[in-house]
Specification:
Largest sheet: 3 strands, antiparallel
Distance between the termini: 50 Å
Number of helices: 4
Order of helices and strands: HEHHEEH
Structural class: alpha+beta
Number of strands: 3
Strand content: 5-15%
Mean pLDDT: 89
Low-confidence stretches: none
């Protein structure tokens, strides 16, 4: 099986810059870098850059939603 057969087809890039991820999340660049630094938003080094896999943005949103649901149920 080739690499292209095992990869899902996506409409966009697989890796985002921190600025692109910030735009997707609707937060500022500084906030996005803080999320990366704290480890809340996973990133990978690529040369001198930090790139964020698109799936990590989705996973971060899922964690936020799960946390919000748990807080709403506890209230």
């Amino acid at each position: 099986m080739s690499v292209t057969e095992s990869l899902p087809v996506t409409a966009g890039p697989l890796l985002l810059t921190v600025e692109e991820a910030a735009r997707l999340l609707g937060v500022g660049r500084t906030t996005a870098f803080a999320l990366v630094k704290s480890g809340e938003l996973e990133s990978i080094p690529l040369g001198r850059l930090r790139k964020i896999p698109t799936e990590c943005v989705t996973e971060y949103i899922d964690r936020l939603r799960t946390r919000a649901r748990a807080e709403n149920q506890a209230a």
